[in-house]
Amino acid sequence: MTTITLFSINRPNLPPPPQTKNLLSPV
User: Fold this and answer.
1) What is the DSSP code string of 1-27?
2) The whole model's pTM is what?
3) Is 8 within 8 Å of 20 (Cβ atoms)?
4) What is the per-residue pLDDT across 1-27, written as a single tens digit (0 to 9) for each?
5) Contact in structure between 3 and 27 (CB atoms under 8 Å)
6) What SS3 class is residue 12?
7) What is the reported pLDDT for 27?
8) Residue 4 contacts residue 24 (beta carbons within 8 Å)
9) 24 neighbors 5 (Cβ within 8 angstroms)
10) How far apart are CA 7 and CA 17, in angstroms?
11) Torsion over CA: 5, 8, 12, 15 (sign)
């Protein structure tokens, strides 16, 4: 969760990868 959050904050302009989307979907 921390890695995804950090990645999202680090690249808010870039779209999240499919893996991140998959992890964020169920959460």
Assistant:
1) -HHHHHHHHH-SSSPPPHHHHHHHTT-
2) 0.19
3) yes
4) 566 666 656 565 666 666 655 555 555
5) no
6) coil
7) 52
8) yes
9) no
10) 10
11) negative
Rounded Cα–Cα distance for residues 14 and 4 (Å): 13
Alpha-carbon distance 13 to 26, whole Å?
Answer: 22
Taking a C-beta distance cutoff of 8 angstroms, is the pair 16, 8 a contact?
Answer: yes
**Cα 2 from chain centroid (whole Å):** 10
Q: What one-letter code names the amino acid at 17? A: P
Listed residue (19, 26, 15, 20) closest to 5, CA to CA: 20
